[in-house]
Amino acid sequence: MNSSISPSEQLQNWVNLQLPNLAFNINLISGDASFRKYYRVELADKSLIAVNSPPAQENNPLFVNLAKKLKQAGLNTPEVIATDFEMGFMLLSDFGDIHLANLISSKNYPSLYQNIFPTLNQLQQLPTSEFDLVDKYSSNLVQFEMSLFNDWFVEQHLGLKLNTKEHEMLNSAFEFISNQFQQQPQVLVHRDFHSRNIMFAGGDINQLGLIDFQGALIGPITYDLVSLLKDCYLIWPQDKVTELAETFRQTYQANITKEAWHKWFDLTGLQRHIKCAGIFSRLAIRDDKPNYLKHIPDVMNYIYQVCIKYPELTEFAKLIESKLQLGSNTK
């Protein structure tokens, strides 16, 4: 295609080739925390979703492979109508505009989450051997994700430099957290299973649709559950979150002890939130997406509340109180 025209024009021309002799309107509906951009293609009788997903940054073949395999397994994923992996273009079926985030409230969150639990369990029960394109959530990746905390949140966002002792303390804390990943049963992990990536087709809570699963890995069994219940964009009372996590264990993983389950839940969530503090800072500084900064105080509160529960993380909690200037927000 002609590189002198904009990416959105290139995408529109490509969509036109996929829908010959059909009139349509195409409009940007969202970008997200990645490099992807989504467009709604309005036809006379239906709508579709066109995606511009740069191949240098996004694993589009994995998304397509998973969309088909998950659908074959009975999960509701977008139908892949057309692809151009070289350009990074995809044409998908349209689930509509209703995300979990649009419907959830302080009154209905326990019932909505429990309505989602069967789908999450179904995802976790899939044989990992059938997903040969999906990598394992390696210790190196777990550690790299947590390194974003210091590189982007502490140094770039807060403008602080940790001393040698503090670096050693963080490294020790991160090693403790990473070890918890490897101790858990390993399942297919969506890896971004939260309120903005769970959709209800036509607004029907019984028509749950999964999107944005191109980052999937084989990883710890509590990862997607804690992503759901300790959402960076939604905050619920800690005791209620614990109750819901226990409900999931009793219903689907009763063979795992309560003590082990909740420790894994805490520390897997901690790794995710450490990563998110770094990613949200990077999105603001590198990618000019400052809106994510407003979620950092809640993310830091999640981090702090777990750190004060475990002796191995006491010094990390003290660092948050004393040097990261968030102690007043985290108590």
UniProtKB/TrEMBL annotation:
<dbReference type="Pfam" id="PF01636">
    <property type="entry name" value="APH"/>
</dbReference>
<keyword id="KW-0067">ATP-binding</keyword>
<dbReference type="InterPro" id="IPR011009">
    <property type="entry name" value="Kinase-like_dom_sf"/>
</dbReference>
<dbReference type="GO" id="GO:0005524">
    <property type="term" value="F:ATP binding"/>
</dbReference>
<feature type="domain" description="Aminoglycoside phosphotransferase">
    <location>
        <begin position="26"/>
        <end position="259"/>
    </location>
</feature>
<keyword id="KW-0547">Nucleotide-binding</keyword>
<protein>
    <recommendedName>
        <fullName>Aminoglycoside phosphotransferase domain-containing protein</fullName>
    </recommendedName>
</protein>
<dbReference type="InterPro" id="IPR002575">
    <property type="entry name" value="Aminoglycoside_PTrfase"/>
</dbReference>
